[in-house]
Write a structure and sequence with these properties.
This protein is an alpha/beta fold. The chain has one domain (5-182, 211-236): NAD(P)-binding Rossmann-like Domain (Rossmann fold). Helices cover 41% and strands 15% of the residues. It has eight helices and seven strands; from the N terminus they run βαβαβαβαβαβαααβ. It has helices at residues 14-25, 37-46, 61-69, 99-127, 148-167, 188-192, 197-203, 212-224, and strands at 5-9, 29-34, 51-55, 80-83, 130-135, 173-180, 233-236. The protein has a seven-stranded parallel beta sheet, with helices on both faces. α5 (148-167) links the parallel β5 (130-135) and β6. α3 (61-69) runs parallel beside α4. The protein is globular. It starts with a strand and ends in an 18-residue tail after the last strand. Bound molecules: NADPH dihydro-nicotinamide-adenine-dinucleotide phosphate and 2-hydroxyethylsulfonic acid. NADPH dihydro-nicotinamide-adenine-dinucleotide phosphate binds next to α1 and α6. The site of NADPH dihydro-nicotinamide-adenine-dinucleotide phosphate (NDP) has 29 residues, from α1 and α6.
């Protein structure tokens, strides 16, 4: 049996890190991509499969293209792309947010996810084989206060995924938008609150959120299905979370 190859963006932490561990257990060899080389190297060394590390900012498209064009020969045919690198920055209302934070989210979650896809997809189409799992979020389906541009970037991921499905009709190339809810113990909230540990921990207090392993298991399940089965969207929330209704403000009457 030939070894399958997966490229995971954002593999140095959280969901991407857990996904690398899970996919290695399924026998995938891995291309691990993120900015922090030392984290990727330590992960690669801990896994029992061949790994190729790309220490690169996904927003540096020139360097990324060069890295992807210079893969070791045994890693060139990518079976599975997990487009996971992404972030939220801030939770302020739209009138108060930092414009640079908005730019970084749009650049990383939309532009660079599309860029990586555009780099990898032609090979999958040519081989008539491949699978892309994009990391969406419930923030792309349900509006919440402070979700503004982050949620909008994840709505992009959803529509981009479904439009890829349309483009790929007739090809054995599958696309899934994986849509998680609240996940504890990744660096997500630490990044969102610019390193404010107390604010990050408060998000997960007094409830049992999902873990990165829960989502890695979902990815492994989607990746293990036979080639004639495509999961278009997979929305996963912790039991303690639900779309619990619209809000009505009762303070606005003069
Ligand atoms: P983490 O912050 O733990 O991990 C994010 C990963 O993305 C890291 O490996 C980071 O690596 C990488 N990354 C971020 N920016 C860049 C960049 N510019 N270039 C390369 N790599 C980058 O977050 P999660 O694991 O929680 O989140 C992963 C994905 O899941 C994101 O797309 C997020 O939006 C989504 N998600 C998260 C949820 C949650 O509650 N945690 C819920 C729903 C969706 P490095 O810093 O080394 O570059
Ligand atoms: C992360 C989940 O609810 O913080 O995408 O937006 S949420």
């Amino acid at each position: 049996m030939t070894t399958k190859t997966a490229l995971i963006t954002g593999a140095s932490a959280g969901i991407g890190f857990a996904t690398a561990q899970r996919l290695s257990e399924l026998g995938f060899q891995l291309i691990l991509l993120a900015r922090r080389k030392e984290k990727l190297m330590a992960l690669a060394e801990s896994l029992d499969v061949d790994c190729h590390v790309i220490a690169c900012d996904v927003n540096n498209h020139e360097l990324l293209e060069a890295e992807l064009n210079d893969l070791p020969i045994s890693f060139t045919e990518i079976d599975l792309l997990v487009n996971n690198a992404g972030l939220a920055l801030g939770l302020a209302t739209a009138d108060k947010t930092d414009w640079h934070d908005w730019q970084t989210m749009i650049q990383t979650n939309c532009m660079s996810l599309a860029f990586v896809t555009r780099q990898i997809l032609p090979g999958m189409v040519e081989r008539n084989h491949g699978q892309i799992i994009n990391m969406g979020s419930i923030a792309g389906n349900y509006a919440y206060k402070g979700g503004n541009v982050y949620g909008a970037t994840k709505a992009f991921v959803d529509q981009f995924s479904m439009n890829l499905r349309s483009d790929l009709l007739g090809k054995k190339v599958r696309v899934t938008n994986l849509v998680p809810g609240l996940i504890a113990e990744t660096e997500f909230s630490h990044v969102r609150f610019h390193g404010d540990t107390e604010a990050a921990q408060a998000v997960y207090a007094d409830c049992e959120a999902l873990s990165a392993d829960d989502i890695a298991n979902s990815i492994a399940w989607v990746a293990s299905l036979p080639e004639h089965v495509n999961i278009n969207r997979l929305e996963v929330m912790p039991t303690c979370q639900a779309p619990a209704g619209l809000a009505v403000d009762k303070t606005m009457l003069d």
